[in-house]
Amino acid sequence: MSAAGERQLTALSELAGLVAGGATRRSQLVTATGLSRAAVAQRVDLLITKGLLVETGTVATERGRPPLALQLASDASVVCAVDLGATHSTVAVAGLGGTVLAEATEEIDIDDGPEAVLSRLHEQLGRLLAEAGHPASHVRAIGIGVPGPVEASTGTVIRPPIMRGWDGYRVPAFFEGRYDAPVLVDNDVNMMALGEYAHRPATAHLLYVKVGTGIGCGIVSGGSVHRGATGAAGDIGHIRVPGHDDVLCHCGNTGCVEAVASGAAVTATLREAGLPVEHVADVVRLVQAGDPTARRQVRLAAQRIGDVLASLVSFWNPDAIVLGGSIASLHDDLLADIRAAVYRRALPLATRTVAIEATILGRRAGIEGARRRAVQHLLSPEGIARILAAR
Amino acid sequence: MSAAGERQLTALSELAGLVAGGATRRSQLVTATGLSRAAVAQRVDLLITKGLLVETGTVATERGRPPLALQLASDASVVCAVDLGATHSTVAVAGLGGTVLAEATEEIDIDDGPEAVLSRLHEQLGRLLAEAGHPASHVRAIGIGVPGPVEASTGTVIRPPIMRGWDGYRVPAFFEGRYDAPVLVDNDVNMMALGEYAHRPATAHLLYVKVGTGIGCGIVSGGSVHRGATGAAGDIGHIRVPGHDDVLCHCGNTGCVEAVASGAAVTATLREAGLPVEHVADVVRLVQAGDPTARRQVRLAAQRIGDVLASLVSFWNPDAIVLGGSIASLHDDLLADIRAAVYRRALPLATRTVAIEATILGRRAGIEGARRRAVQHLLSPEGIARILAAR
Hints:
2 copies of one chain form a homodimer.
Chain A: H1 3-20, H2 26-33, H3 37-49, E1 53-56, E2 69-72, E3 78-84, E4 88-95, E5 100-107, H4 114-132, E6 139-146, E7 150-151, E8 156-157, H5 171-175, E9 183-187, H6 188-198, E10 205-211, E11 215-221, E12 224-225, H7 257-261, H8 263-272, H9 280-288, H10 292-316, E13 320-324, H11 331-345, H12 348-351, E14 355-358, H13 365-378, H14 381-390
Parallel strand pairs in A: 3-6, 6-9, 10-13, 13-14
Antiparallel strand pairs in A: 1-2, 3-4, 4-5, 7-8, 10-11, 11-12
Protein name (chains A, B): ROK family protein
Pfam family, one (chains A, B): ROK
InterPro entries (chains A, B): ATPase_NBD (IPR043129), ROK (IPR000600), ROK_cs (IPR049874), WH-like_DNA-bd_sf (IPR036388), WH_DNA-bd_sf (IPR036390)
């Protein structure tokens, strides 16, 4: 593409972003961009023609013709958001402005492999689109979080520790021919981090730490997910914690924080102690019922997790650490020990402003991040280019 | 400033950056930016008038008027780069294109405080400018690395562990009235990281780890230093390493990697073992002479540092880790153990592409980073705005 073409896309993307952010009048776009009225008009008209924006009249007043109000198109444009877990898939259909039109969660088994799981997902999506009253042709972008490492640029699953049969599978390929829309795939924890970030406008550097069966984190800085050189960033489950070199981890190393302090590890410890626990949910129930042994083990786990986070605070100096995952409902028991460990070990300058908090989106963090990712892409220069080319 | 003004600055910054990157003809700028010939001409002429660019003729040929060649101005424009350590100050005067015109290192004592140290620095700078044949009015930007935490936006030293008397001192204030130039101050390790990054074009996410008397690191991602919420990012010296809870660190905690594996720690251990060492330089000499006890202690230190870096590789997934600092001359002894520890502990996906290497700039990393920072700022929209306003 020519540089002039790129400039045009950047300008269109900026205008669409301003409308998404609440600018409703052409005059506001002129002020915000420094473009001439004519240049704004030409570009806004193009975005309206292409179906991304609409301009609606308000009721006429005695003072003359009322100004028209711009907004993201909602009649014929939706995004789909998918949060794929090991045992569930949550799918949402949402307007470009954020309104969720339909949403549902179904049980799946991720180990059934990509074709089986994505076929069911496709059916689920079809039902929700019908419920929301939109045909497949209205879908403008699809965001999908999956429970494993992803090469985000291609949407390919890479060497997932769970997800049997998915290694090397390029998820967007499944949707080609089914939807005329870009498919944005990322690790589920990255999606959750993005969702939490979007709901914390004062935060610049956020860590989202998911403690469930395993332990992982998502890193967002300045609005973008930090994925690192090979998309492996945030994979903190196998960081070593002191004093546990006798504990074998499924990765083959010993003393990994996931082997010592994950939901699975606490469950195993309590089971060995004779308590009736099978899953992380049982641990949560026991703690909520006030069982002292269960509370003790959760607090010990929190201290280990806090030790790891102290190192990351020293290194990365975030302003927010958000705790999520199936164990996050125990945040009263977890946060105190995590905070104590971070404040004890990290340097005062690094802990001066860090907020260590429970998730505010809870189970919806992943779906919210996937929705954000879809809209973010749709309004990006790349997304705009696709819209201009397609219709 | 109006949005139109900001756009103009962005366009001017882009043009100056293209010339800095090697574009010498107006036609190349037209192609690269998508701007019209007239728009490029108007902006290039402005940058020439303001003294940032020059356009020089080449020898005429029989085929007619030769094309003029654009480049960054060198007659009346230089930047100054300063690397301030605990016991030395290195100062360089350089052309905007990178040529070092004069450079010298002097001994100082950082604990003499800001006024005394900066006064000596100012004299040193004056001598070097005279040597290079430039008056103070030619200085367009000054980059300074200092051995402590800095609030980079204001250039204020914050709670430095060394640097007695500097806490809360705003370094650029000293230079006001002395030079009509922006002063960019940052932690010395951040400057070193930036210098190494600039010399590794294939690298996107770089960690520069400095092992000298202490241990610290600089983080560069996509060309920018990651400073974190309070400018404390990279302060890895107080991350805990397993198995050393009996070792007291000067920070008041125990088991910090700096207390166990820094040059100062190895020096202390060897002295206790009866070896004749006073400073890190003595350790380096002993190892180079093949002393087995000294080599053993350096290798043990490398393993501890490698354990910490393994955690950071899992978390941040860099594509390069560069080892520098006074102990880096021992890289043959250090790198093998650091690499072994990283490969043993971090996950395969994260270590697949990471290069763990010795510094290529050595002692010049800091001064090179400070020079880059000065030029980077000068060509930024903010730097261009200052030039337009001032002259």
